[in-house]
Amino acid sequence: MRIFLSGATVVASLLVISPLAWAQAPAVSQPNQAASAGANATRYGLAVVDVSYVFKNHQRFNASMEKMKADVEAAETALRNERQEIAKMEEALQQFQPGSPDYKRRDEQVTEAKAAFNLKATKQRKDFLEREAKIYYQAYLEVNDAVKYHAQRTNLGLVLRFNGDPVDPNVREDVLRAINKPVVFQNGIDITPEVLALVNRSAGAPGTAVRPTQQIPGGGLNR
Question: Is residue 160 part of a domain?
Fold first, then answer.
């Protein structure tokens, strides 16, 4: 059984987050831009938030995913051991004359063991996918609530989602992602630090006033 974690499931596509691409990149701090985000956002009544960044740094979400990853690995180990036992049963079957009563009896045992194994593996995979979906959905609700709370508190009329990941001009997928970004430019209206502080607050994490930011090569897009 192979379970792909960190969003390589239908759940990720539903959230339009693509967590497979969540590799952490080195960040360059830009305090002035981060510090002016709240004032500019309030001034324009408009803000942007990097949901992917929030998910990557959502402590409770990441802890739940790590716990599930450990459970998946344990389940895979148990299934691997069970499969090895079935393989031993198949080897032992070769010691009997095909067609003999003992051969038929043991062959039925192997067939039943294989069927039970496949059923168990399929059920476990389904259970883990459902569990992953619930983890993502719970985090999704928390992020939405944090955005709504901050928007209402600061009189924001609209919050747009954007992606502030840096673009590698040598990677075609990165370039296409940048070209297709709905938010081409934002001038200090990124409320990601505030949203991240809210979702991590109940987990006992200290809020961060300055968010690590990225400057896109060429200056066309920035975080």
Answer: yes
